[in-house]
Design brief:
It is built from six helices and no strands. By secondary structure, it is an all-alpha fold.
Length: about 120
């Protein structure tokens, strides 16, 4: 399977966060371990990170996004998952791909996201 930066939770978090201190790096690794142990947690945490990234995408592109500490973002994401927050636990409807989509459609959407990110 082809690598997509949009599917890499750590890469998205690095863009959203200030440089991480040692404790935050340990916390990130613990999150990745939890994701590998629980597919349900992986699905929800990934959706929450992608939702937060999409929500701030325009600010990131315009270089007006103010990076936050990973500890704050992580707590916010975990609370959103725990409380089934629609804003954090689920990607916006316009980013979801229906069951009838083909791999070609998915590849096209990923290419559009990559092109937007380059601009």
């Amino acid at each position: 399977m082809e690598y997509s930066r949009f599917d890499d939770v750590a890469s998205l978090l690095i863009e959203l966060c200030k440089p991480m201190n040692n404790q935050e790096l340990v916390d990130l690794m613990n999150i990745k371990i939890s994701m590998s142990e629980s597919k349900d947690f992986e699905k929800h945490y990934t959706a929450a990170v992608k939702g937060l990234y999409v929500k701030n995408f325009q600010k990131i592109q315009n270089k007006t996004y103010q990076k936050q500490r990973f500890a704050n973002i992580n707590n916010h994401l975990l609370d959103g998952i725990k409380n089934n927050s629609a804003e954090l636990g689920i990607l916006p409807a316009y980013t979801q791909i229906g069951d009838s989509s083909t791999n070609q459609t998915i590849a096209g959407l990923r290419a559009k996201i990559a092109k937007l990110h380059e601009n």
